[in-house]
Design brief:
By secondary structure, the chain is of the alpha+beta class. It has 4 helices and 11 strands; from the N terminus they run E-E-E-H-H-E-E-E-E-E-E-H-H-E-E. Strands 1-2-3 form a 3-stranded antiparallel beta sheet, with no helix packed on it.
């Protein structure tokens, strides 16, 4: 069990499914979230994420952020990379952690300065799709070590072993 002060249903992993509370952590990828009751939090409880402290989706969690035509027209040219094969994505810069890359539009470190996006209002649809607490958000948090791996999940993806 988790802290007696925390409740199931207030966790980053909870999802309201009609009249039911469900738990994203407890369900393997591709399966329906498991229905839970309104009781004490389990040992996997984690508070809902705060983007300014996290920034996982823009950090080392993903290697590429596709940019569609509309976003390509909106974004500053220095943030858009057009590859020889026609693939268009956001520019990446070396991560300050020394581990991979992060989006060139990301500022801050989450400790001395909050994570912020310098093109937030212009960001591509791929970025807009990663909402706080969504499966993409939680996957990014897992990949950078901010969240636990649920059943069936690995750093390489759902059910994939390397």
């Amino acid at each position: 069990m988790g802290s007696p002060n925390d409740r199931c249903g207030t966790c980053a992993w909870h999802l309201e499914d009609g009249d039911w509370l469900t738990c994203l952590f407890a369900a393997p990828p591709g399966e329906q979230p498991i229905r839970v009751g309104d009781g004490p939090a389990c040992a996997h409880y984690e508070p809902p994420p705060d983007c300014l402290d996290c920034g996982a989706c823009c950090r080392e969690a993903f290697d590429s952020v596709p940019v569609d035509g509309d976003a390509q027209d909106r974004l500053p040219a220095e943030l858009v990379v057009v590859h020889d094969d026609g693939w268009v994505d956001l520019a990446r810069v070396p991560s300050p952690t020394g581990c991979g890359t992060r989006c060139a539009a990301l500022r801050g470190d989450g400790e001395t300065a909050p994570y912020t996006c310098v093109v937030y209002t212009l960001r591509p649809d791929t970025c807009r799709d990663v909402k706080v607490g969504s499966e993409g958000c939680l996957m990014a948090r897992r990949r950078v070590g901010l969240a636990a791996w649920g059943p069936g999940w690995t750093p390489s993806g759902p059910g994939i072993t390397s």
